[in-house]
Amino acid sequence: QVQLVESGGGLVQAGGSLRLSCAASGRTFSSYAMGWFRQALGKEREFVAAISWSGISTYYADSVKGRFTISRDNAKNTVYLQMNSLKPEDTAAYYCAAREYGAVVARALYDYWGQGTQVTISS
What we know:
The termini are far apart. Helix content is 0%, strand content 53%. With 123 residues, it is mostly beta strands.
């Protein structure tokens, strides 16, 4: 079992930055691939970014590529999402997720989820 707790959300103006953190506890964090997803009001949860257990491989949704960076610190059992050049359309609840084996885009393949942190971007 893996427990995930997100933090770092908030309200910022368009063009600003935020860094989300996801702290993991439970089983060996370094053996899990991690992902970030987001869900805007009235919409389905969508993929944002993913990172392999080693941190070597990363994947991004086209909508965030070049603006967001996913990283991890296995010594701290934490994964991060650095978000720059934020836009109003980035407004959503952001969730981190974990799965064994490789990093993937598909939401259904993740086994563990956090409770989410709200990100609101004002125009």
